[in-house]
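Teaching assistant here, posting this on the class forum so everyone can see the example we discussed in section. The complex has two components, and the goal was to see what a joint structure prediction looks like when all of them are supplied at once.
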Amino acid sequence: MSRRATPFVLLGLLFSALPATSHSFENTAIVRTVDLGGSLVHVTTTFAAKSLEQDASVYTIALGEEEVDRTSWLDVKVKGQPDDLKMSIEYDPQSQMNLLDVTLPKALSLNSTITIVLETIQTHATWAWPEAAAQGDGQALKYKTDLLVPSPYKTHVQRTKLKSQSPNIISYTTPKHLDAFIQEGGPVTKSGATVTYGPYHGIPPSTAEDFLTSIQQSVVVHYSYDYPVLEVLKLRRAAEISHWGANLNIQDEISLHNAGPTLKGHFSRLEHQTQSYFKRPAAHVLPSLTLHLPAGIRNMYYYDLIGNVSTSHLRVPPSAKKATRAQYSVFEMKPRYPLMGGWNYSFTLGWDSPLENSASWDSAGGKYTVEIPIMTPIVGAVVNDAEVKVILPEGATDVKFAVPFPTVSNTLSTHITYLDTTGRPALTFKYKNLTDKHALSIYVSYRVPLSAHLKKPIAVAAGFFSLFTFALFARRIDLTISKKGKNVS
Amino acid sequence: MPAAYPLPTNVSPATVANTASLLRIIALALISGAAIASRLFAVINFESIIHEFDPWFNFRATKVLASEGFYAFYNWFDASAWYPLGRVVGGTVYPGLMATSSVFYNILHALNLPVDIRNICVLLAPGFSALTAWATYMFTKEMKDASAGLLAAAFIGIVPGYISRSVAGSYDNEAIAIFLLMFTFFCWIKALKLGSALFGTVAAVFYFYMVAAWGGYVFITNMIPLHALVLILMGRFTSRLYVAYSSWYAIGTLASMQVPFVGFQPVRTSEHMVALGVFGLLQIVAFAQLIRSYLSSKQFQNLLFYSVVTTGILGTFVFVGLTYKGWIAPWTGRFYSLWDTGYAKKYIPIIASVSEHQPTAWPSFFMDLQLLIFLFPAGVILCFRELRDEHVFVIIYAVMASYFAGVMVRLMLTLTPCVCVASAVAFSSLLDTYIDPAEPDVPRNPQNGGNTTLEDVVAAATANTTKPGARSAPKGIFGLDTRMIIIFNAFGMLAFFVFHCTWVTSNAYSSPSVVLASSNPDGSQHIIDDYREAYYWLRQNTPETAVVMSWWDYGYQIAGMADRPTLVDNNTWNNTHIATVGKAMASPEEIAYPILRKHDVDYVLIIFGGLIGYSGDDINKFLWMVRIAQGVWPDEIQEPNYFTPQGEYRIDERASNAMKNSLMYKMTYHRFAELFGGSGQAVDRVRNQQVPKVGPTLDYLDEAFTSENWIVRIYQVKKEDDLGRDLKSANAFSQGKKRKRSKPVSKRRAIV
């Protein structure tokens, strides 16, 4: 398992944390940057903290309830260091906050400072406004968030930046009743594509009783977004390992949904062709999609419920040695019809790849280890429900697996396919709300005895042998009742 | 005996027999391989996809059968077809094809070979064509010998007349029916030759399979009795014939009545009466034979005379009486159209509107059969030479099938096996004659010591012509060169035949018609996939209960690919319902709208080829819609109204008013002119006519989807206006057009 990637999903982490003491730290500055997107919103919060006691080793981050519901991926680092910090989460009913206790790499002495970076990705956080758009209209989304970053500690100064990709910000909330915290300027400023709330000074801890009721408020920003808002409603990946074919087959069944503003009125091909002729495609239309598949794949297929989809291109570089692993195949797919707002499109995508690219053999333990990628990221799309099924070779025993982040559930079943006699063990992993940060790999290790390898040829040979034996006897058995019965007229 | 070339003499007969048997097996295997391979053009050029129209229904039914089992299929009421009537599928379908595929499907899945049901359906026809080749081999072997059988198998394996109905993906009843036809005939011949009840029963079992598989089983039902009847009339009644026919008819008829769609037809309809009549006649003849063996010939003659007269009169009365009482159904319209080619056009336009029900054009005989078409008569004549019982069968078959193939294009299919058999007999006789090394004995001229001079030959020739039969000159083939010329020629023809078959198969018969192909500027293939684009859009983005109206040609495809209820489909059982659709398409919007609303239509789907020049579109089929609607509503729809006063079928400025106002015309050309910038250059490339600069406007429907090349256009039917206005004025209001009034009303202040 690579130690590099141990990110974290909030579900499933339940062990109790150390009691948070609200006096061990104070925040000298909090800066939150929100990259406004479509399905995914990337939030980076930087906490500059100063220790108020000797040997402070646990820093607590507070997260609002709504924020926890939206967050699908989260990690905490010390600024400038690559390693993730250990953490645990607990709900605090008194402040109605989830408290995230982060164990610092080393205990801090009195008055020393540290900068902690919290990165989260929120899904389903934006919504289209207006909710329906005609074919030629632009696309605008709304995003709502809390004005102040909650923290159990006192904060000297904090600000929130909302960055949009397009400079066209239609409107934003101007917060009120904040005079106590503002030293100069207004409560909010906008420059270009960025809306900045703050700086606000002297924010009390969010555990204080009146924080939620009188100080905290929510702000909404309405911005235009130039790319289609994509959601994968369901992703079903099946990865089948074959040792006889030295092959790893991966097949994705994807149902794609355009979650942008729904199409107002009807689709007009004329308008669509005019738009693409003048190269002014509408923001909320998805005419085609580019996916990055592994290098060296073969027998790629792309079809849907009624057959092959012929409008696609694939460019495959040869599978490279480990040093130049960055290469990938480019798959340009065009759905059967341009995906307008609110439309669905489901399809199946699959390919074969050489097993040696993703499997290794441990001769000491006699085990194979195979790396199965959880998903092929579709840029900017969220995967609502994902199911990854890893089908191991027939007769595989001693199956162990390591997942990069906790699953919703995983099960072991039996899968029967071509030329199987007893069936293959299959592992099924289920996930929710995956983002491109989750495009990591599951590692499965197993042992295949020689007898299991030989099962297939023996089964096929036995089948043919019994057929020939039957034919041998059938031709030699005489079933006529009387020998002279023939040719009597 | 002199020989043209030496034959090895030191080979034991057992070795020859074994080698020949091995060669036969190899040849049959290769023929099967060729038969399957030549049908795969469609899969290689396109993909593994179900073709055309009817196969889509068969495919859908097979999926139901494979997933839900036979009884569920039997009781399947398809509520989504013929909305709102529905269709009792289990009772109105020949289930043989679906049952065959689902048996294959279940066997393969039981063997842990999870083959996709679609691939089984796509490859069923090529697989059965290999079996057809084998059945034809067996049949022809009974006619002549094994070598003729091999030739016949090779012919039927690649002949375009059969390939046209059995390419991969053409998942239709004919795919398995031709094999069943040939095998039933083989069993019948075998039963007749041996007088075997076993083969009679086998023939009956395959006859049952055929009945379950294809409506064309009536051909067997009439061919076998006809053969028996002709044999009786030729005075060839034997106990073998009696045994074979009785066992086939009794078991076959009882078995065929088990198919729900056939039911009691074998005893109640006119098409089946020949078989029943011949069965009765055989009993009488057999009884007469029995009596004759006990009576003197004088007594017998009297008895025979009176009994024949009485039975004849009685039989006719009974038949007429039963028909009159309605116990025997009279001939159906489809049957009449076999005798009178103009019948369908007059009385049942729905049958005439199908292209495969048209009379066959002469070139298509050559296209489908090539060299076989002129070998065929030779083969039939060779059958007369020997005229055993089975040769009589081929002669009758040839006569009947030739007639039917001339009447209807699709019946070319039943002619093809017979042509292959007869041609193989002819061709193999030719090869037998010229490959045989035996030369006739030449009386040696003692003076010249064996060297024949020119004078001798001339003398011999003149003597022969002047006085035929006076001197028995040796007839036969001399030398190797004469043989080589003929054989070389014959094989050359065969080679051309192979090229022709390959060319026709790949160019004419391997297009799925769901997917169209054109080529890019760089020569690579470009797929035009508009049908599936639109069907998939319907499937993914409309409610599952949305009713789609289209012309009946596309009903099965919509049900299969879009999975939506349709008003009419290719199972054209309800003429009125189809005429209703035709009327809606041919009427102006105001008249069509109530029809659409009453049938809960949500979407209307039409095909338009004018942008890319695809000729099989709805405007070209429009006249059939008009004709069929006219058959039911002659007062409201009249065909002449859709032509210009000059009698032309036009869609441009000069089109007739009925044409311009029809729903079909409006949907077809809605916003089409705007695609060309409204500059008046919008040309319909199918009709080669300029469409009017200002296109038609639609008030009661909305354009919902148009495919990439505009082939499929889907319109949504608007709901009634919320304020109770008619949609035309509601539309005018929302576009800001003022209603013209006689008095200007501007009394807004007075109200206050």
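For the discussion questions: The CA atoms of residues 156 and 202 of chain A lie 5 Å apart. The radius of gyration of chain A is 29 Å. Think about how each of these relates to the inputs above.
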